[in-house]
Amino acid sequence: DVQVVESGGDLVQPGGSLKLSCAASGFTFSNYAMTWVRQAPGKGLEWISGISGSGGSTYYADSVKGRFTISRDNSQSTVYLQMNNLRADDTAVYYCAKGGISGYYWFDPWGQGTPVTVSS
Amino acid sequence: DIQMTQSPSSLSASVRDRVTITCRASQGINNYLAWYQQKPGQVPKLLIYAASTLQSGVPSRFSGSGSGTDFTLTISSLQPEDVATYYCQKYNSAPFTFGPGTKVDIK
Residue A103: what pLDDT? Predict the structure, then answer.
């Protein structure tokens, strides 16, 4: 089965850093883009970052550009999200998802999510 | 950046009703549009990509149409298990923005 599993969410103070991981299985990892999407409590889905299968192309929402970095290790079938200078409005459940065929950025499946809380 | 809007923001319909949700892009995106379903307390699930291609395993009562700036998601016969929030998402180019969502419940 195709599966992605996130980890690394935690309670962190404003200005702090956190690194999320997403382990994938059941597909040829390097052939697919991967993405991170977040959902603040009671709010809608917010796409925040994506990375191509090779890792050569990365994309960010304006809300996280310059603070978050996406990367991947194709030998470990894992994608990461390094989050720096965290703010209260970064509090959300962070989902990892696999991209679609031919490098398209639709997302399926999604992981269960990992919660990040930014608070003092 | 291209903005995505959805209407209505919420709706209430009876079982077996036909339900239509609209998604609009502020600029043309060809058919690079996906639809997702998020049931209460659950993870989002892909329903449709390329505006009208049904993802494997999704019931045939779901359908999508449109191209350019205007898109629709139709549930031909609403079922109790369809209570959820539905999101559209553009993927022609980054940022791969989601619409604000449409909450569907049963009257």
Answer: 87
